[in-house]
Amino acid sequence: MAKILNEVSRTFSEFLIIPGLTKAENVPANVDLYAPMAKFKRGSKSSFALNIPFVSASMQAVSGADLAIALARKGGLAFIYCSQSIESQAEMVARVKLHKAGFVPSDSNLRPESTLAEAVALSRKTGHSTMPVTHDGTGTGKFLGILTDKDFWEFEDNLHAPVSRSMTAKENVVFGKVGISLHEANKLLRQRKKECLPILDKNGRLQSLVFKKDYIDHIKNPYEMLDEKKRLAVGCGINTHDFKQRVPVLIEAGADVLCFDSSDGYTQFQCDAARWTRATFGKKVVIGGGNVVDAEAFRYLAQEAKVDFVKVGIGGGSICITREQKGIGRGQASALADVVAARDAYFRKTGTYVPVCSDGGLANDTQIIIALAMGADFVMMGRYFAMTTESPTPKVSIGGRLYKPYWGEGSNRARNWQRYNAESESDFKFEEGIDGYVPVVGSLSDVLGVTIAKLKSTMCNAGALTLGEFMKNAVLTRVSDQSFVEGGTSNIKTMDQEVLK
Ligand code: MZP
Question: Which residue CA neighbors atom 7 of ligand 1 most closely?
């Protein structure tokens, strides 16, 4: 007979946190949201950690280059989706890496004989208003001058004229030489009241650009996730089918973290692929495994596949219909509690801490906070990020409100057959995800700002200054259906009801 677990599968909205003693130092300004991602030994530090405990899902409708840049600047990490060609995934990684606040390779360049019309077209295409002029129109050609949108009037000047007539020629440009430090470059920008500093090599060839706006941006985003070369960090989804081709290209492109994108990660395929990746690229590569929903599967991935972190969640995603289609899955709170207990036991036994990520089904800020209190080291979200301006989909107006399309990787639209352990695309015979719309909520920075404020506030209520303390000290209570209903407002008419009447 099949084994039937006694415990009912529970979700996050069935729990509340009981406040602990809030000490004088428990104020949001003192709260640190550091979250380890790579496994580590007792007494040592994780070799790769997040500055805020949020990562974005490896999904077509979520993690493109723009979202990856926006999230890394805030201290989190995006997982660029793998349900695309290896080349286009690597290209997205390269775009994130190019967006370095500091020495930026120039990718909007003109030749002296280019026309102003070509300059306008280039500026529209790239969104850049500062365009170096080099002898061959490349980002490493001999530097001749610089053209900005302030040097000509698009609707007044003759757009057939060559840019050489309007540009600021090299002899009048303030530039730095290769070898200059970022600090010195910024100092020069400040002293000479400039917006952009071209950096030239000893032969007068352009090497990179330093922008004042990047300096300001860096000051405004102190939690940026940066790699060793001070470029923004980025993660990548990978699968168990083409990993031998995909992983080397992604690592070459600069991916900082790899994570298996699988609806059920308790498989020998994943173990073999993780072992191959580790054997080929060594200890430094950060590998995430999953998804799993119980202790046994966690132990398998930690012990046998030797992954760095384990992702939890089957069937809970907002677009997921796996539970209805196949009858597999587990309530996310029960799954997380089981895996977290296994993580702690594994740590006690082996001295190795393998971080756990709660993936999918987080419908609001409260559920995010409960997941972290329950012991998730960090959370992965799809819908949450799909709703932001930076997600890769276009805005659509429906009934006077703005929406963005959001679809599951198991939907017919994504056809991510590798995620569902199918043998080939033709083996993709039924959907496990839906295709719909989510409301647009604003910029990632604004949305995340509110979530972080609530999280820090709750951590103060619980008397915790770090996420480690939060999960160690949190006391959770189950709520009855009735207490859930009464948890909202009672006998009050809200403005919305009044206005909408
Ligand atoms: P959510 O944050 O939108 O609720 O869930 C996102 C998570 O759902 C992803 O990280 C992934 O684990 C899972 N997912 C993605 N596509 C599907 C599907 O088509 C899915 N079923 O379940």
Answer: 360
Q: What is the pLDDT of residues 390-429, one digit of tens each?
A: 999 999 999 999 999 999 999 989 888 889 877 888 888 8
Q: Provide the 10 A C-beta neighbour count for residue 178.
A: 13
Instruction: Give 189-198's long-range contacts (Cβ < 8 A, gap of 24+).
Output: 189/215, 195/130, 195/148, 196/130, 196/146, 196/148, 198/106, 198/132, 198/143, 198/146, 198/173
Determine if ligand 1 sits within 6 Å of the CB of residue 410: yes
To 10 degrees, the CA torsion angle through 386, 15, 371, 17? Answer: 120
Alpha helices in 351-480 (DSSP H): 365-374, 383-386, 444-461, 467-473
User: Using a 6 Å cutoff on CB, does residue 370 contact ligand 1?
Assistant: no
Q: What is the tens place of the pLDDT at every residue in 124-173?
A: 988 889 999 999 999 999 999 999 999 999 999 999 999 999 999 999 99
Sheet holding 206-211, edge to edge: 176-177, 196-200, 206-211
Query: What does pTM read for this prediction?
Result: 0.86
Is pLDDT of 74 > 60?
Answer: yes
- Choosing from 71, 359, 434 the residue with most ligand 1 atoms within 8 A of its CB, the one to mutate for a pocket test is 359
Least confident segment among 96-110, 211-225, 235-249, 262-276: 96-110
Cα dihedral sign, 338-479-497-452 = negative
56 lines ligand 1 (CB under 6 A): no
359 lines ligand 1 (CB under 6 A): yes
Instruction: Read off the amino acid at residue 286.
Output: V
Considering only CA atoms, which residue is closest to atom 20 of ligand 1? 320
Active site residues: 320, 419
